[in-house]
Write a structure and sequence with these properties.
- It comes from Marinomonas hwangdonensis.
- By secondary structure, the chain is an all-alpha fold.
- The chain has one domain.
- The radius of gyration is 15 Å and the shape is globular.
- The protein contains seven helices and no strands.
């Protein structure tokens, strides 16, 4: 199977997980699936996957969630660039240490999203905006293992 098809399938699954409806009381506990998948591919294959794909995926998430066009694209590009700069260092860390770094990156994503939403009058200040970052960081070791096995099965280099 060609690498572009595997990328597309993993990103499509991430977008489908982003679209899963959550009950109102659990909306703050939704992980950032699309960002999780794009960060894996940026760490695993930084010369094939980068800010361009992150920008496109951000646009798709904006269209999917009905938000401001470009909001997620902006944050995904910032996060993917940061991850691409530090990919060599990230590969040397243990999975739980990578999870802490991913948690910090997703926290930056959540903070920028909150600033944009607050500026537009759609969000009130709360510390719960960082819960998706914590959940995403906790899911990192398992998602890394799954995506790495997919990459190895299809011999993507």
């Amino acid at each position: 199977m060609k690498p572009i098809i595997v990328f597309s399938i993993t990103l499509l699954i991430a977008l489908m997980l982003e679209a899963v409806p959550f009950p109102e009381q659990f909306v703050w506990y939704r992980p950032e699936w699309a960002l999780l998948v794009i960060l894996y591919w940026v760490i695993a294959l930084p010369f094939r996957v980068g800010v361009g794909l992150a920008w496109f995926l951000g646009l798709l998430v904006d269209l999917l969630q009905g938000g401001i066009l470009g909001q997620h694209s902006l944050t995904y590009v910032i996060i993917a660039y940061t991850c691409a700069v530090f990919y060599k260092r990230l590969r040397m860390y243990h999975r739980w240490q990578q999870g802490v770094f991913i948690c910090m990156l997703v926290s930056i994503n959540q903070l920028i999203d909150f600033w944009i939403d607050h500026y537009l009058g759609h969000a009130e200040p709360t510390l719960l905006i960082f819960m998706p970052a914590v959940i995403t960081g906790l899911l990192w070791p398992w998602s890394f293992t799954i995506l790495r096995s997919v990459r190895r099965v299809y011999a993507i280099r």
